[in-house]
């Protein structure tokens, strides 16, 4: 491949849901801009966006307890859960607009009840408080609560069969979804390339450097044959998942200094046994073990991938120094810099429970993993379940004035002050909130164009810039309209 010196308008690094979402937005806002996507693997959506590398939960905080932790005084507030749900509503609107325009089929998303299930007296008291805080919130309309084994059996039989009469409780809502982010990502990239964007597969970006003209020069190597080339771009988005940290560090922007990455791997149990699959139609989240990261909250999920339904349980967290599933064993040590060694050491000091938890998970036998499944599903038999390896997640570590460094669970956009380069670090809720994340990025990186773009974006996402939970009638209307457009209701 020969070098190209004519700068592209936009280069997107990484073939996942974030690049697909941002590229789709930019192409509608500026159809005259040139867009090129570089993906290091032979297909898009092979890392975190792959359906078997994530749980496919449309994260709307309907069932995830980590968005509503119990405070020291025992109180439970819905603010974070409402915020996450508001963000997911923006994603639903964007997808439904594309579907209404005939640009996106809806096979990637399925209506799937979301449940929370807990055991033990203290956990039951907590879930009761959580339900009380959510039941009157418009975005959580219709959520149900029960401590009755018979009612919970109707919602999810596999949770009750073979269970003793211990204290249990569950919530249930029909507003939940299962999302195949791999299928969605592929569909968005297909639309991008049909409208003129270039998708370069098997091309790994090795470094990013500022040019004298103020653009960015990317050194790229084709992974088949190791053929190198360079390309210049006016704007670069680093959506390379765990690979984003290294590339942002190579750019030399001040904003990335002090950031580090903490990689966490994982596994799931999966079954395709039709007798079991037929008895469970829900995503059921429990409570995380002490010291466990939020992404390791145990859950028993219905999954629909390529039209086939299966059940998934996990995740079982572990540790690997790789930042990507197809990454290098040198990813973690190679990310250490003088500016982030302090925050990384501070995180290690303050997260001994997490270290202990990860070591325990790493050493856990298959029998121990099966026992964890049986706490959810007492009748589970090992022969019905296979272990699959999930995707790598890299949690953000960054400077903190008081503690020296903090481990942040969530996502963070890191952008240069001039807005010419930006990247995304972190993990969950990630894919589910790709649309609001990319809206924030566009406003930060393109302030001069934002005034012209905002009306166009509101055509796709009508409630952008407003909230729904404080408008009950509007919330119900938007949920109903997007559900119809996405094929989630009759």
TrEMBL record:
<protein>
    <recommendedName>
        <fullName>Probable malate:quinone oxidoreductase</fullName>
        <ecNumber>1.1.5.4</ecNumber>
    </recommendedName>
</protein>
<comment type="pathway">
    <text>Carbohydrate metabolism; tricarboxylic acid cycle; oxaloacetate from (S)-malate (quinone route): step 1/1.</text>
</comment>
<dbReference type="InterPro" id="IPR036188">
    <property type="entry name" value="FAD/NAD-bd_sf"/>
</dbReference>
<keyword id="KW-0285">Flavoprotein</keyword>
<dbReference type="GO" id="GO:0047545">
    <property type="term" value="F:(S)-2-hydroxyglutarate dehydrogenase activity"/>
</dbReference>
<comment type="similarity">
    <text>Belongs to the MQO family.</text>
</comment>
<dbReference type="GO" id="GO:0006099">
    <property type="term" value="P:tricarboxylic acid cycle"/>
</dbReference>
<dbReference type="GO" id="GO:0008924">
    <property type="term" value="F:L-malate dehydrogenase (quinone) activity"/>
</dbReference>
<keyword id="KW-0274">FAD</keyword>
<dbReference type="InterPro" id="IPR006231">
    <property type="entry name" value="MQO"/>
</dbReference>
<keyword id="KW-0816">Tricarboxylic acid cycle</keyword>
<dbReference type="Pfam" id="PF06039">
    <property type="entry name" value="Mqo"/>
</dbReference>
<keyword id="KW-0560">Oxidoreductase</keyword>
């Amino acid at each position: 491949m020969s070098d190209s010196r004519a700068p592209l308008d936009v280069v997107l690094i990484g073939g996942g849901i974030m690049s697909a979402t941002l590229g789709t937005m930019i192409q509608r806002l500026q159809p005259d801009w040139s867009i090129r996507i570089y993906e290091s693997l032979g297909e898009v959506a092979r890392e975190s966006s792959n359906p078997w590398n994530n749980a496919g939960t449309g994260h709307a905080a309907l069932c995830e307890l980590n968005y509503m932790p119990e405070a020291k005084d025992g109180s439970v507030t819905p603010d974070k859960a409402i915020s996450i749900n508001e963000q997911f509503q923006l994603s639903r609107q964007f997808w439904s607009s594309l579907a209404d325009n005939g640009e996106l089929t809806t096979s990637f998303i399925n209506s799937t009840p979301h449940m929370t299930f807990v055991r033990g007296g203290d956990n039951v008291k907590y879930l009761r408080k959580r339900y009380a805080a959510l039941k009157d919130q418009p975005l959580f309309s219709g959520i149900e609560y029960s401590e009755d084994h018979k009612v919970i059996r109707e919602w999810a039989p596999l949770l009750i069969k073979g269970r003793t009469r211990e204290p249990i409780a569950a919530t249930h809502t029909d507003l939940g979804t299962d999302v195949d982010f791999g299928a969605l990502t592929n569909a968005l990239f297909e639309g991008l390339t049909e409208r003129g964007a270039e998708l370069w597969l098997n091309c790994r970006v090795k470094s990013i450097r500022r040019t004298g003209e103020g653009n960015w020069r990317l050194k790229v190597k084709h992974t088949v044959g190791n053929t190198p080339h360079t390309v210049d771009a006016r704007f670069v988005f680093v959506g390379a998942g765990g690979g984003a940290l290294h590339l942002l560090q190579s750019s030399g922007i001040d904003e990335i200094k002090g950031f580090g990455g903490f990689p966490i791997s994982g596994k799931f149990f999966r079954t395709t046994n039709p007798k079991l699959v037929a008895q469970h139609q829900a995503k059921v989240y429990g409570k995380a073990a002490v010291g466990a990261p939020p992404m390791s909250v145990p859950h028993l999920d219905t999954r629909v991938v390529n039209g086939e339904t299966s059940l998934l349980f996990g995740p079982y967290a572990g540790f690997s120094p790789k930042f990507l599933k197809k990454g290098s064993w040198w990813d973690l040590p190679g990310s250490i810099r003088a500016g982030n060694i302090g925050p990384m050491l501070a995180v290690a000091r303050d997260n001994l429970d997490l270290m202990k938890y990860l070591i325990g998970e790493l050493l856990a036998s298959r029998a121990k993993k099966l026992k964890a499944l049986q706490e959810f599903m007492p009748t589970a038999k090992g022969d019905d379940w296979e272990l699959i390896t999930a995707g790598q997640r890299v949690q953000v570590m960054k400077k903190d004035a008081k503690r020296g460094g903090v481990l942040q669970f969530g996502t963070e956009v890191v952008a240069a002050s001039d807005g010419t380069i930006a990247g995304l670090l972190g993990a969950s809720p990630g894919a589910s909130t790709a649309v609001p994340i990319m809206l924030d990025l566009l406003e930060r990186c393109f302030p001069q164009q934002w005034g012209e773009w905002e009306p166009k974006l509101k055509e796709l996402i009508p409630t952008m810039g407003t909230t729904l939970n404080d408008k009950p009638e509007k919330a119900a209307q938007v949920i109903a309209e997007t559900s119809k457009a996405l094929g989630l209701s009759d």
